[in-house]
Specification:
The structure holds two protein chains of two kinds. Chain A is α+β, with helices and mostly antiparallel strands. Chain A has nine helices and twelve strands. In chain A, a hairpin with a 5-residue loop joins strand 1 and strand 2. The C terminus of chain A is likely disordered. The radius of gyration of chain B is 19 Å and the shape is elongated. The chains are: A alpha+beta, B alpha/beta. At the A-B interface, helix 5, helix 6 and helix 7 of A face helix 6, helix 7 and helix 8 of B.
Chain lengths: 477, 230
């Protein structure tokens, strides 16, 4: 299975192509080495033959044929020219002197170089050993041959050839083996990822790609994919949670409505009772519709690109409007709501959304804060970041709930009975994400403090006039 | 309705919604013409004088916004109430408000629809500049920004004055919460909290406490209404 995959693998195909190209280059290189070595060795022996010939020629020139014969005999006997071949014949090719018995039939013409072989020219030489000789026709018609047994040169060349051939073969075998093992390793890691993907497709995103602890790129890939799977699993969990909650929060008012209508259906018509029933039913339906519009509103903020509608707005102004609006609500609870900080903090954003988000935070602070508590909204600049914070002095929330409270429909146990649908902070989170705002929750000792930090923006450079034009409200229509 | 029958054009493709609209507007004293597609709406809008028209955002054929644009191009200034089922009001619809138009998101309470239609109809007919508004024994001086009931001076914050002014200008009409938020605060969303009720509650305490009769009434599930007892 793995082997079959290895052979189909593109890594192996790539490796084989590289081996082919590399091998061809190595073959060409070794061929050149072999050719140049052989040529060098041959030219060396040719030079030795030519030198020997020159000595004999000199003897002939100075002492005539007799001198030549003498020189040949002397050279043969002292063995100074190893493997030397000599032959002097009459014009009819009848041997006169030398260690060759017959003029080789391959040597034709007046003079030149030739390779040939002669059977049993020397008792210790192999049959048909390769010989090389230089021959010429002397001025008196006699033929002279000077040559050399080149059998050992030939063997040298062959040894080089064999060594090179073996090297090439070894290189191919080694490269092939390495490619297959590397490919097998790659295919093995990919197969692990594939197996996990299949498991996920079959039975949900609970399996993870095994790590080998080598911290190599494969481990990093596996780690990233695993992190991605964690995120997907978390999102799926959230979707399921939201679906369950929608179902639950829908069923409750719908069940109430149904029960009420059923009871009304079975009793006598009574104008006053019917009227109050209709009113209650409409109020319940309104709360269902409100929940839906909150949900669609949040998902629209999260998915659509609304940044085109962004304008320069004054956060401090929005904050003071929110505070003014909620002042009555805080007063109803016997509490106090105030705003502190700077008068003018400009950010780029959507006024409606920022207002809504701030209103939700303030509303939460009043609702979940202490009875007759104190809520403070603060707006200022901090290192160029615009920062809004909304703080109450109520019971606060445990630190391990900090992340949960932004989930849709999430409600703390103790808040189940207060009005609300658990969507307010989800909206705040969505608005914050759209504006690139970082939300922090801080223990206000006592109470809870939400801190919204806006991203740094290049100095807006707006003239006061321009700011006035965008941030002031049109008069009452 | 004070001045006889007024004509209204309803452009709506869903038969049931259309029937409900026609029925409701007719019982509210309007003479209603119905168009069930954009082209029909366009030709009717061009040929007849209407006080107001309501236009569904999604229509077969021509889009609701395109109908309004075409009519404006043809010089028809009839105020339009755009009804959108998209859940969220987009910027293009918001932009239309500048031209004396308004929008409403489905599903809506008919009382809210009527309030908005009435407001548009008024805007198109009467642009009288009053300096003093009166309801019952309540008197609002728009110049000196003072309010009194009988001999009693009522102290109001500037925003509270604006709220009361808007309610008084729409005397006898139901003013939905979202409409109040839209006109007094220039905010375009449906508040998820009961904050408007609390705010109007405070205005009501200042205006109505220790008085012979209340002026500000809450209409359950919709909004508020200022009216003097007859």
């Amino acid at each position: 299975m793995l082997l079959a995959k290895t052979f189909r693998s593109s890594t192996l195909k790539l490796a084989l192509i590289s081996i082919g190209i590399f091998g061809a280059v190595v073959c060409a290189l070794f061929g050149y080495v072999y050719w140049s070595t052989a040529t060098y060795v041959l030219s060396r022996s040719d030079r030795a033959i030519a030198a020997e010939h020159a000595i004999l020629q000199k003897a002939y020139d100075s002492a005539g044929r007799g001198g030549l014969i003498g020189a040949i005999e002397q050279h043969m006997s002292d063995g100074r020219f190893e493997g030397g071949l000599y032959l002097l014949t009459e014009p009819s090719f009848a041997p006169v002197a030398g260690n060759l018995q017959v003029w080789p039939s391959a040597l034709k013409g007046m003079s030149g170089w030739a390779n040939f072989s002669v059977r049993d020219w020397k008792p210790d030489s192999a049959d048909g050993a390769p010989l090389r000789a230089m021959f010429e026709t002397l001025p008196d018609g006699y033929h002279l041959l000077v040559g050399k047994d080149i059998d050992n040169l030939d063997q040298f060349a062959r040894a080089i050839y064999t060594a090179l051939a073996w090297s090439v073969a070894l290189i191919f075998v080694l490269a092939g083996a390495v490619s297959i093992s590397v490919t097998r390793r790659t295919v093995g890691r990919i197969e692990a990822i594939n197996a996990t993907s299949r498991a996920i497709m079959e039975s949900g995103p609970s399996s993870r790609i095994p790590l080998r602890g080598t911290r190599d790129e494969w481990d990093q890939l596996a780690e990233n994919l695993n992190t991605m799977l964690d995120r997907i699993e978390a999102l799926m969990g959230e979707v399921k949670q939201v679906t369950d909650n929608v179902a639950h929060d829908l069923r409750t008012p719908l069940a109430r409505i149904r029960g009420r209508l059923e009871k009304a259906c079975n009793r006598q018509r009574d104008v006053e009772q019917d009227q109050s029933l209709i009113n209650e039913t409409m109020a319940d339906l309104d709360s269902v519709l409100r929940m839906f519009s909150s949900l669609t509103r949040i998902s629209r903020i999260e998915t659509s690109d609304r940044t085109s509608a962004f304008r320069t707005v004054n956060l401090a102004e929005i904050a003071s409007e929110v505070v003014e609006l909620f002042d009555a609500a805080a007063e109803d609870k016997g509490g106090h709501l105030n705003t502190v900080g700077e008068q003018r903090v400009l950010v780029t954003g959507d006024r409606d959304l920022l207002f809504d988000a701030m209103a939700n935070l303030v509303d939460n602070a009043i609702k979940h804060g202490r009875e007759a508590g104190h809520v403070t909204v603060e707006v200022n600049q901090n290192n160029g970041h615009a920062v809004i914070s909304v703080a109450d002095d109520g019971p606060g929330i445990p630190a391990d709930e900090f992340q949960n409270i932004f989930k849709r429909f999430y409600r703390l146990e103790r808040s189940r009975c207060t009005p609300g649908n658990g969507l307010g902070l989800s909206l705040v989170a969505a608005v914050a994400r759209l504006h690139g705002v970082r939300i922090e929750m801080v223990d206000n000792e006592p109470g809870l403090k939400f801190r919204l930090q806006f991203p740094l923006v290049a100095e807006s450079g707006l003239e006061d006039g321009a700011y006035q034009a965008t941030a002031t409200r049109p008069p009452l229509s | 309705m004070p001045e006889g029958q007024r004509r209204i054009l309803v452009i709506e493709d869903d038969p049931e919604t259309a029937a409900q609209l026609v029925d409701f507007l007719a019982t509210s004293g309007y003479q209603v013409d119905l168009a069930d597609n954009g082209d029909d709406g366009l030709s009717r809008g061009r040929s007849t004088e209407y006080a107001v028209m309501t236009i569904d955002r999604m229509l077969p054929g021509i889009d609701g916004l395109a109908v309004v644009r075409c009519l404006r191009k043809a010089g028809i200034v009839t105020p339009a109430l755009i009804i959108s089922a998209l859940g969220e009001v987009d910027d293009r619809v918001r932009g239309l408000r500048a031209g004396g138009d308004d929008y409403l998101v489905k599903p809506f309470a008919f009382a809210e629809l009527l309030a908005r239609v009435e407001a548009l109809a008024r805007r198109s007919s009467t642009v009288v500049k009053e300096t003093v508004l009166r309801v019952g024994n309540l008197e609002m001086d728009l110049v000196s920004r003072t309010v009194s009931r009988g001999d009693l001076e009522i102290e109001l914050l500037p925003r509270e004055f604006q709220v009361l002014e808007y309610l008084v200008r729409n005397e006898g009409q139901v003013v939905p919460r979202a409409m109040l938020l839209q006109h007094v605060w220039d905010l375009h969303f449906d508040p998820t909290t009961n904050i408007i009720d609390v705010y109007v509650g405070r205005v009501r305490r200042k205006v109505d406490s220790q008085q012979a009769y209340p002026l500000i009434h809450t209409v359950r599930g919709v909004g508020f209404c200022v009216r003097a007892p007859c």
